[in-house]
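Hi Y.,

Following your request, here is the sequence exactly as I used it, all 279 residues.
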Amino acid sequence: MIETVRELWGWTRQHAWMLFLATVAAYSQLHYDLYGPPAHLVILPALALIVFLVLPTWAAVVHDSSDPLAMGLAGVGVASAMAPALIWAYHPAGKAWLKDDPTSLALGAAVGVLMVVAAMARGKVPWSAWGLGLGDVRWWSRPVGILLVAILVCIPIVVWMFPEFAQFYPRYKPARTSVVALIQYELAMGVYMFCWEYYYRGFMLFGLGRTLGPVAAIVIQAYPFFLLHQHKPEPEMISSWFGGILMGWLCWRAKSAWPSFLLHWVLYTTMEVTAFIAR
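Below is the corresponding structure, written out as tokens. Let me know if you'd prefer a different format.
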């Protein structure tokens, strides 16, 4: 028994950083699964910034920097951001309170983002190491451009073939009858999608890829991405698995999470605008 414990402890020490990054990723996923934000112009992007950007970036700073000031800035940032997010999740009256006045969430997210960005700069954490750089733009600009055109052409056809999309979207109910509300919500979704893509195709893909290699990292990030689509229309959920694999490969090859963000946001916005017109 003692020998088994020693062996386990040795394995844990050997893979400590991989386990640390995977644990942070798992909590971000768990928090969103259990306490995901509603379709709201402030709460949606604020919680996405906190859970999918500030928390993982704090882990990136801890992983890549040993500068005490950088660690301190990142710690203050993640504490400031997570405090209202934890109230939202675990306080009995948290959701009702923050829905009435989401200022705390927005302020916590803003402070958190500023602090972790400052920590990355201070600690000299390379943006490219976590998918935030532009990567090989010359390579990825052409296929992404072609895919964007395909999205703009194909999504209206998909909505026509599957009427359930027009019934499901737009997610934000005021955006179903108001052009202004639709524009506001798509901008909020832009922030949300950036955080989402950084988490999957940045933090998870490039973080775990350092230890596990690209194939394992691509598959691992695709699976929770697929699960987050479980309440969407069935054709969308099925396609999200293959889309997650494709986006993982594309971003690894491009050395950047930006291609996936552009494709995902344009796809989502096109879907919502098409559903709005169909209504």
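The chain has two domains: 1-125, 127-279.

Thanks again,
Q.
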